[in-house]
């Protein structure tokens, strides 16, 4: 019998000394929270849940890409509140051992990476990323029609590539 099946069977097995008046429920009889393992740190306000990574992130330790939608067992706890909305924190461990913490940001209705990983920067200027911007239509047309301008451009590019 698998451990899950055993756990389920346990839930429905009423021991001979079980007294509904005294024990009220099987969970109380066994002295266990109904969520069992997932609730073992409940006294610290921590519940283990399945957490789905809300955006693409990169692990700080191993550098691996963790895709949006990837699932982890995470410790969920409330760490404060913004007006009447709880701020929730989710801590999970990447397979490399890195602790990754993500929390909700009720003010901006989004998630923030607190530690252990970084979010890809989705906006950047071409200069920052050191890529050559694609020329616009006008620029291309001028290069095509004006041989001198084209020559200047080519020299500039070769100078730039020499660094
Ligand atoms: Zn990692």
From TrEMBL:
<dbReference type="GO" id="GO:0005684">
    <property type="term" value="C:U2-type spliceosomal complex"/>
</dbReference>
<protein>
    <recommendedName>
        <fullName>CWC16 protein</fullName>
    </recommendedName>
</protein>
<dbReference type="Pfam" id="PF04502">
    <property type="entry name" value="Saf4_Yju2"/>
</dbReference>
<comment type="similarity">
    <text>Belongs to the CWC16 family.</text>
</comment>
<dbReference type="InterPro" id="IPR007590">
    <property type="entry name" value="Saf4/Yju2"/>
</dbReference>
<dbReference type="GO" id="GO:0071014">
    <property type="term" value="C:post-mRNA release spliceosomal complex"/>
</dbReference>
<dbReference type="GO" id="GO:0000398">
    <property type="term" value="P:mRNA splicing, via spliceosome"/>
</dbReference>
């Amino acid at each position: 019998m698998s451990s899950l099946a055993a756990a389920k069977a346990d839930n429905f097995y009423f021991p001979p000394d079980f007294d509904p008046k005294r024990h009220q429920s099987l969970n109380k009889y066994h002295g266990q929270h109904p969520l069992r393992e997932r609730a073992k740190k409940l006294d610290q306000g921590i519940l283990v849940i399945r957490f789905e990574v809300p955006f693409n992130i990169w692990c700080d330790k191993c550098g691996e890409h963790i895709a949006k939608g990837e699932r982890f067992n995470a410790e969920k706890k409330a760490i404060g509140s913004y007006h009447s909305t709880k701020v929730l924190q989710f801590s999970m461990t990447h397979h490399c051992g890195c602790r990754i913490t993500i929390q909700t940001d009720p003010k901006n209705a989004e998630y923030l990476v607190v530690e252990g990983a970084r979010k890809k920067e989705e906006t950047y200027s071409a200069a920052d990323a050191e890529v050559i911007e694609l020329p616009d239509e006008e620029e291309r047309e001028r290069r095509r029609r004006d041989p001198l301008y084209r020559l200047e451009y080519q020299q500039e590019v070769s100078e730039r590539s020499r660094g």
